[in-house]
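All the exercises in this workshop are built on plain-text protein records. A record pairs a protein's sequence with a compact description of its fold. The structure tokens are whole numbers drawn from a learned vocabulary of backbone shapes. Once this layout is familiar, the rest of the handout is easier to follow. An example says more than a description, so a record of this kind follows.
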Amino acid sequence: MRRITGKAKDETLIELQNATESQTGDENSGNGISSSSDKTILPGHTETDKLQPNKDTVFFKDGVRRIDFVLSYVDDKDGEKKQERRREFEANLEKAGLELETDDKTASKDQKTYFLKIHAPWDVLATYADVLKIKVPFKESDIPHGQDVPLEWLTHPFRLPQHIMRPQPDYFTHPFDKTKTDFFLINDKDTFFPPSTRNRIVFYILARCPYYSEGRKDRDKTGIKRLLSNGTYTAAFPLHDCRYWKRARNAECESERYNLYKNWASFLCFYKEQPINLIRKYYGEKIGIYFAWLGFYTEMLFFAAVMGVICFTYGVLSYDDNISSKEICDANIGGSIVMCPLCDKKCPFWKLNSTCLSSWQSHLFDNEGTVFFAIFMGIWVTLFLEFWKRRQARLEYEWDLVDFEEEQQQLQIRPEFEIKCTNKRLNKITQEMEPYLPITSKCARFSLSAATVIFWVSLIVACIIGLIAYRLAVYAAFASIIKDPMRKIQFVGRFITPQLATSVTASCINFVIIMILNFFYERVAVWITDMEIPKTHLEYENRLTMKMFLFQFVNYYSSCFYVAFFKGKFVGYPGKYSYMFGKWSKLRNEECDPGGCLIELTTQLVIIMAGKQLWGNIQEALLPLMRNWWSSRKGRHHPENHYSRCEQDNVLQNFSQLGLFYEYLEMVIQFGFITLFVASFPLAPLLALFNNILEIRVDAWKFTTQFKRPVASKARNIGAWQEILNTVAILSVVTNAFIMAFTSDMIPRMVYLYAYSNESSMTGYVSNSLSIFNISQIPDGNMLEERGYLLNNSITTCNYRDYRYPPGHQREYTHTMQFWHILAAKMAFIIIMEHVVFVVKFFVAWMIPDIPSDVKARIKRERYLIQEYLHNYEVEKLKLQLSASFITEPHTEMSSTPDKYEVLSECL
């Protein structure tokens, strides 16, 4: 930062800002001091009385020391007790070496909030960088980034400027050692540690600093988290480096927030790559790895989306070759086939050609191309996971996380564990007393937690059963309305079948139930996880992850599993139908359309997946915006530069410790939709692609404009989510194989084409797939109450979807041999498809190494260079020591051993 020096020794003034510049809103205006005059203040002049300080700065009032962290608090009714805690806490912070500066409440816009600004000097940073083993540069890297790629110019429109993509040069790094500062590339101690590292170190101190006096031993009274929970402080956060829409004027302010907003959060940059290195530099590795994973997932979705569009296009282009749909729509074929009632009492007999439109819709998704696409997705998911491991390994190297042990950061006792666990025992390793949870209390808490999870999962199952009962009950109403020729709604009836109407309304109700249960269970999951009192942060996140994903899995996917694997499979036949709760319930199990249940599964998937994505984006974008507007509404009519950087950031939303957890959860649920049921809807990856392009920019916008700057933290991978993705990937092969075999109508068509068709074509398939039943044998309990108004007395039989012998046959109404052939073909297809996909999956996983060869070579070279440089450094240091001792020793002693130092020097 450029400073103007006055006459007095060491007197400095922050860079001047012209009043006219602030009024015109010059983009370069930002940190500094405003002047009411437009004349230039020259060095040596002392006109400081006329200068008004601009509060929008990330430095102390002296303009030199950087603000590394901010604590805010207000006076309230418990002021004395909280004031005592703050006094002790701040005294201990100063003893730890931190420098403090307080902004009085009179300077804040609400006249209530105090801001305690914290600066970490070099000695503190060096000490804790040594403790935390933070890697710092010791030599600029001599390994090139990569070779020129052919046709690289094609990717130029998608790339960002080099200074944004690589905000700092590549270095060889080594854990910091305070005793070897001259070994590292320290040009300027003030900027050697970047702001993200500085705020991480300060937060480490804050989390462990006690707020009891020296004479007392209240070890539980430790850490900023407890002070935040008891209201002593209202917020604790590091500062953003500038406003997001305007670059900082101060040269020492990096304006990284502005660069992120301009090149990352802007929706006009949706087609460009993400500045992952700048994200990591500003927010830390944990947030950086999330956006790297999300970006890579979105890139891979592009290939799945292209194949899905090709598959869908094939269904559109083969529209005219769909003989089955032509037969259903033909007035002489489908119009002459009378179908049996689909429900008891209320449902009439109906003509097959009434499902004409539904059969055409089914063909768009249920065709030969769907099989290829299901197999492709089984391989795609393996490629995605394997290539992500390689990308992750590369990021681990580039971000100095190769030797990072997560236990160093995550395996630290949670403050909540220390507070609630009053029992202590001796730690055999540290030989210190530490809190622990007795086994009896642990078992009781786990039992209550398990019972709560089982109750909520059972509640979801109960809701699904209730929804199925709704489908069965309301289907009769839709069937009696839509199919009744006496009603004047035939135009609608041609486009909306009872199955479609029931499926759409049930899916919408199911989506509302999902969102309501999700809202309550999120809070229940956090409550029962808190009740278990996990010892470490890593343990807490893993337990919450498993509870939330188990619930979300059942909540979001159960209805799709019902339509895919249960609906239409246990129907029975006329005269012997199956009922949901027994015949007394009069809720007859649902049947599928003659074209199959796949179109209903598609409808269910589209409504739930698209609805969740739309609601999620609205919630993510609007809620933080409305909350921040509400928080800052009192001062919105004042110019922004009248408020300090602390005040501007204080009104922003907190980014909670579980913030990334919910982001991962949302994407993993989406991943399940596009893999578990993708055979029913090939366009699902395309919907996910569009959503993720928007999701990246919405998340970026939230981070840069709506959230306080989070404390930088490290993570070398995506954690437990990797195993969940692997599990979903394996399960998806099984579900898609079963969907193609039992939900799709492809296998019966293939069996008919190659085994039963006389002309080796699909002509006659519709009639072949239907069985005949004698109307006179239908029990009165199943028969329509008003029998005569639809059918004349010449029709004595009706058709139903199954493979059974006709009336009069010696084995009437039992399954035909074709049924068993089709069942055998379905089982064979499942076995063959699963084995083929699994073999290819494991072969691809074996062929693709998790760590790229060039990364392995770089890691080895860096380790070799570290050893070599450390050896040379120690040798040079020892030579200097020997030279110094040689000079200081007495002459007589030196002459008695003239060759000692020469020999030792030669050995070195």
About this structure: The mean pLDDT is 79.
